[in-house]
Amino acid sequence: MSVPVTGRASADAGESAWHAAWLPPAAFRELGSRGVLVHGDGLLVDTVLDEVSRACARYGGRVWHGPPWQVDAELVLALREAGPVPNAVAEAARLGATPAVNGTGGGALGDEGYLLARVNGVTVVLADAPAGLLYGMFHVVRLGAAAFDDDLPPRRHRPALDRRMLDHWDNVAVHPVSGQVERGYAGGSLFWRDGAARREPARLRDYARLLAACGVNAISVNNVNVHDTEALLLTDRLGDVAEIAEVLRPYGIRVHLAVTFAAPVVLGGLPTADPLDERVRAWWAAATRRVYQRIPDFGGYLVKADSEGRPGPFAYGRDHADGANLLAEALAPHGGVVRWRAFVYDHRQDWRDRSTDRARAAHDHFAPLDGRFADNVILQVKFGPIDFQAREPVSPVLAAMPATRLAVEVQATQEYTGQQRHVCYLGPWWSEVLRFRPWGAAGDTIADVAAGRAGAGGGLVAVSNVGDDPFWTGHPLAQANLYAFGRLAWDPLLDPGAILDEWIDLTWLPVTKGDPAPVRRTMHAIMDDSWRTYERYTAPLGVGFMVRPGHHYGPDVDGYEYTPWGTYHFADRDGVGVDRTRATGTGFTDQYPPPWSEVYESRERCPDELLLFFHHVPYRHVLHSGRTVIQHIYDTHFAGVEEVAAMRERWRLVAGAVDPAVHDRVAERLDEQFRSAVEWRDQINTYFFRKSGVPDAHGRRIH
Ligand code: GCU
């Protein structure tokens, strides 16, 4: 059958009340103006067909899907298993890529991979499974005109990480402290409002498209802090979760649920949630069975246990392996996984106690348990040992558990990086983390750890930065973080600058008025280095925090200094920083394998940007840069503010070229960023000037 290509109702995001982000209709212009053949069947192939049909309806192309095949396609999107393709070039490519012919073995493209080539005027995407076809189609969209220019030698594309997940910290009911979305800076939740499911499938479908187009394939739909209403998603409110799964499924996204470890008590009426109790095991098995009856492709559970007051196995004298394995056992028959978070520490610490070090906590708790977790347990580890700061060393847990499936968790929601009021492109930071080699230059990277052996790793996870804001992420430029997350999870070796370029190409250039070059230049000039700019005007040299307690926005140098949270900087009149050495400090450096255990232990060898994370040093300590610590603090804080001022200027200059609504929103955010950066600069500089008594070598104004 040939698919009608005119008169279709268009649900293009560009015509909606929300921003099209990286899929404005014009991003499909090249694809949509061709003859396109889609070969194969299945739910996700239907999605491909729908995308292609809409694009072709808009831009004058043609679509074929089934006989009669009198076609002259310029783009062929085919499942290899669907049999011969009625296009000579594509068929030759299919035969050439077929395992029997090239000897690469069955399933060489995997569940999500594809082969892309352009030969003799035909662009061919071949896949072994429908998801691969979908990802291949989005690749063609990314390439734009380049997909139809010169020949492209056949290349196989497969995700480096099988699990590419976004965790929403969304509450169903508005929480008195954390609101509708915990640490959310983009309005309300896409899923929930005031205690009920939103049931807005059009917006959710657009969200799923955006995620699939950057490679995300899993999502959890509620906050890791599972409160009373949210606990019910596992049972009474399961229908709401099933409805979300229904909308996300055509884009290859599997739904997960955050559950409370106390569920057998709070939902099941049992007297205990002890993981070794038979009744508890039976309860989880039955509850999980019901989940899979409703949602056959359900991904699994996400659990925050014995952390910041959440219930967990400790109450029963059991450990985290006992707890995680309990849920793993219930999920195993259905192919699900339990994602158990390693974010466990004492949040009721006495600040006078210098022997307890929050940075040590995850390793102390979990490293001894290596080898004890069931196969379908994924331990989800925050990338750093403390809590999503703009600079931290990589968590030593990621190098300490070779017999455990590990996932790396980053934070797209900008809790500690400017709360989507500041521009802070996190691609370079995540890239640095993923490329880090805990065992030294010859060893694996963190990306290798997340990939695991034979694809068995836990993958990459980000806490979502999305809400019901018309621009999805509050700050329109924060969309780039979501996009970069997906792309880095697909290929951690991608260059973050190139990812930004892709995002600019897809999001802005198709809708730019006039010459696109200045817009591209401006975006790069503002965003490329924006994470380092943020780092410059906030807490110095890796020491972290110094934010307002509670909401975590803006400076408050001593805000956490005398609290129970374990986040201290120990500044006094002589120096600043946390001594985490084994020689004289908390011994945290010992949690790293060599060479880092030695590098971090040594004041001389420790990288400047982490110096105050590992060492307490005098203000006049000289950095590798040649500057003293105190002068570095002054210099970076003055420089950071100047950089933000320059961003503001640059943005003004592109006023006529981008949509006025977007321009206004970004301009308003840049004003706030500038105000806030000045506040940071003045508080930090003044604080350290008063503590140290050391004047600025350049005589600039310090209050
Ligand atoms: C941070 C954040 C909390 C969140 C926690 C977590 O501490 O401030 O809001 O619940 O991380 O990751 O569980």
UniProtKB/TrEMBL annotation:
EC numbers:
3.2.1.139
Q: Which GO terms describe its molecular function?
A: alpha-glucuronidase activity
The record's InterPro entries line, in alphabetical order, gives: A-glucoronidase_C_sf (IPR037054), GH (IPR017853), Glyco_hydro_67_aGlcAse (IPR011395), Glyco_hydro_67_C (IPR011099), Glyco_hydro_67_cat (IPR011100), Hex-like_dom2 (IPR029018)
Q: Where is the Glycosyl hydrolase family 67 C-terminal domain?
A: 473-700
Does the entry feature the keyword S-adenosyl-L-methionine, yes or no?
no
| Similarity annotation | Belongs to the glycosyl hydrolase 67 family.
Listed A to Z, the keywords are: Carbohydrate metabolism, Glycosidase, Hydrolase, Polysaccharide degradation, Xylan degradation
PANTHER family, per database record: ALPHA-GLUCURONIDASE A
The name this protein goes by in its record: Alpha-glucuronidase
A Pfam family annotated for this chain is Glyco_hydro_67M
Domain annotation Glycosyl hydrolase family 67 catalytic: ranges: 157-472
